[in-house]
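URGENT: need a sanity check before tomorrow's submission.

F., can you look over the Aldehyde dehydrogenase family protein record below? I want to be sure the sequence and structure line up before it goes out.
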Amino acid sequence: MQAHDQMYIDGAWRPAVGRDTIAVVNPADEQVIAHVPAGTAEDVDAAVRAARAAFPAWAATPPAERAARLTALADALAARKDVLAETITAELGSPLPLSQMVHAGVPVLVAASYAELAARHAFEERIGNSTVLLEPVGVVGAITPWNYPLHQIVAKVAPALAAGCTVVLKPAEDTPLTAQLFAEATEAAGLPPGVFNLVTGLGPVAGQALAAHEGVDLVSFTGSTAVGKQIGATAGAAVKRVALELGGKSANVILPGADLAKAVNVGIANVMTNSGQTCSAWTRMLVDADRYDEAVELAANAVTKYVPGERVGPLVNAKQQARVRGYITKGVEEGARLIAGGPDAPLDTGFYVSPTVFADVTPDMTIAQEEIFGPVVSILRYEDVDDALRIANDTVYGLAGAVWAADDEEAVAFARRMDTGQVDINGGRFNPLAPFGGYKQSGVGRELGPHGLAEYLQTKSLQF
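Structure tokens as predicted:
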């Protein structure tokens, strides 16, 4: 695609206030592939004012008409699937098959799901002598990450539009080209001017300005827990609503009697997907003591299939590469046993990290507690089922997880006791209509499906 050197505000591409730009780097070869504007507080203000002006008419638009625009948006994304996949591969580094199937494919399904929800959702109901109305919150400031750049945009913008909100999007500075393609899709879908606006820029500048802007009614942020806390504090000072999808340190619990080979192989694949840059990745594999050595051997064999530059792409930038390699070094220093990979870069060019597996990891180690966000798996030993539950719940996070058992009933019973937002049972498939979000420091609120739509609605009751 040809990168835009402008912002998308009030239905048109317009020059940024300042002249500073952000270089977009291909993490596979470290070459600059584009430059985009580094938005300022003034750019954010213009976008918010446009969204504010467009809100009354869009909120008053019948849900069926909003649904039609979302259907058109899903169609526009589907028509751009190839260029979206190629762009995501270029700026994120994910292997092209992953970009085609997941990065560009899933968002089409999610956008279409919100078209259907907008058409059939009950935006009012009668309770006793009250009519209860579900109304759009207002202007949404959406701040999205780089790891799933299109999915995270659609997971915020589609439900906001379905609810009747208007949106200002500030995408991650590493993957702004995908956001520009999304803006083009909103043009093709016929969204009225100001309903969707795009400001590219740095988080501490444009992101902070958006979170703090008095014209923004709700801030939806996906990213690190540390930044989420800052945004929550900023929004809280203005009594502004927030939706925060933050970090994770998810447990992959393999109970006695489970299919060990399947659980280990799927668990390794889960973490290696997207080079480990997935907040819900099952980065802690918990195995009973009696089968621990067998699990370690299975994991060591499984990870050999994930070759850097082929099945595993680079990390998004040099900073992220250094961070993940630092965690691997820390794991060795704290006494974990390295059975695959290591801190050395596997290729001379590109921000690659070797797919890495640690054994003999204890719950108190840094690599078992902190989110690494790279292709690193820690295998922990437990003594009995209660010990497995204690270890699984022993982090500040609670985003996702997996349980494997001899039957679904046993796995579900264990999953009910886990302090986490979603759990896959014996390899259960991803459901784009199920709520996604975390417990504890993994976030506030939910995305996807009707629960995701609810984040952008507020409630009014009329008594008569």
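My own read: The first strand starts at residue 7 and ends at 9. The CA atoms of residues 183 and 198 lie 7 Å apart. If you see anything odd, call me.
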